[in-house]
Amino acid sequence: MNARTLNPGDTFRLRYALRPRGGDDVISNFDDAQPETITLGDGTLAPTLEQWLLDLVPGERYVFLLEPWQAFGESQSDLIQTLPKTDVPADITLEVDQLVEFAMPNGQTLAGHILEITDDAVKVDFNHPLADLSIEFEVEIVDIL
Questions:
Q1: How many CB atoms are closer than 10 A to CB 140?
Q2: pLDDT tens digits for 43-56?
Q3: Bridge partners of 117?
Q4: pTM for this structure?
Q5: Does the chain have fewer CB atoms within 10 Å around its N or its C terminus?
Q6: Shared domain check, 29 and 58
Q7: How far is residue 115's CA from residue 132's CA, in Å, rounded to a whole number?
């Protein structure tokens, strides 16, 4: 009997890591006590990453080498914005190269990378931190729930 493979809408437990090709992990839960529970299509993972999980068999580890267009895309210049400092939450100490969570009007949050700070403004890059990079996406589906 063939093992069941992952399908859209399945809820499953996942261990994964993302890193620039040949670089250090940007995110990894391989060392966490518990794998992450995800439902395919719930928005936890980017759709570009989810597609690589379809039809995988639980219990095996896979490494996908993704070009930028297969992972987080190319940087978009319109996602680099200069914001008045009054738009930055008062409890945040700003530093160049820092990643800051900004609350959006719709209640969601968006991470921005601080590029530059002036007396009255902050230049922020809202592109994904892994945009423009070739990525290694390492995954192991622990089980399908």
A1: 17
A2: 888 888 999 999 99
A3: 122
A4: 0.75
A5: N
A6: yes
A7: 17
- Residue type at 65 in one-letter notation: L
Q: Burial, 36: exposed, middle or buried (Cβ in 10 Å; 0-12, 13-18, 19+)? A: middle
Burial of 118 (0-12, 13-18, 19+ CB in 10 A): exposed
Q: Which two tokens stand for residue 111?
A: 């991470």
**15-30, pLDDT tens digit by residue?**
999 999 999 998 899 9
Q: What is the mean pLDDT of residues 83-97?
A: 84
- 3-class DSSP state of 73: coil
Strand partners, 135: 20, 66
- Full DSSP string of 4-37: P---TT-EEEEEEEEEETTS--SEE-TTSSSPEE
User: Which CATH number fits the domain that encloses residue 49?
Assistant: 3.10.50.40
C-alpha–C-alpha distance, residues 76 and 83, integer Å: 17
- State residue 104's pLDDT score: 74
94 and 62 within one domain: no
Vertex 144 angle, CA 45 and 141, to 5°:
55
